[in-house]
Specification:
alpha+beta, elongated, 3-stranded antiparallel sheet, wza like fold, Outer membrane lipoprotein wza fold like, 11 strands, 4 helices, about 220 residues
Amino acid sequence: MNRLVVMLIAVLFLAPLPSRADQQLHHRGRYTLHAGDVFVINYRYTPEFNQTVTIQPDGYVTLDIVGDMKAAGLTLDQLHNEIVAKASSRLNNPEVNLTLKDFEHPYIVVAGAVQRPGKIELREDTTALQAVMLAGGFSESARDTRVILFRRINQQDAEVRELNLHKVTKTSDLERDTGLQPGDMLLVTRNKLEKFSRVMKATNLGLYFDPTTIPF
């Protein structure tokens, strides 16, 4: 086992995350609902209105007792409060219970010169180098000195940042590793010069990533 492999293993499994990386890690708040999520709604005293509901691509749901309402972007508690408020026009002090049945787990995408490009589900805080290792590691043609991070600004644009993961493999430079957020996209460049602007249109990301994996 060569020295570089030993150092990478130490980075991933033995060394604690440094303070700067800790500050960069995205501390996720309460889960917000998305299109495709499924939840169960139960009315304690009027079970005839109970439903299992899937949030539609436009973010709306249709409930038997309150009609159409926007659900995407809300937490389960916020949605509960809105349902209770709307249902109160027809029911006397409704008691409602919401249960999230199925949802899309937060993920990142790694593409380019890695062994297994694609989606990686985020089960815990993950850094850029850890994401590359979860994607099978760098391929022989990879430029670990130039890894491009795309981070969504809004539905149309993505911020573009250049990372040098070669320095991260040195124990003294672990603090250079970057914490990732759900929806981040990493592109490991190959041994050729590619230029990126600081902001890129989301529609152009299909040049570098499988369009089915782009979370925009």
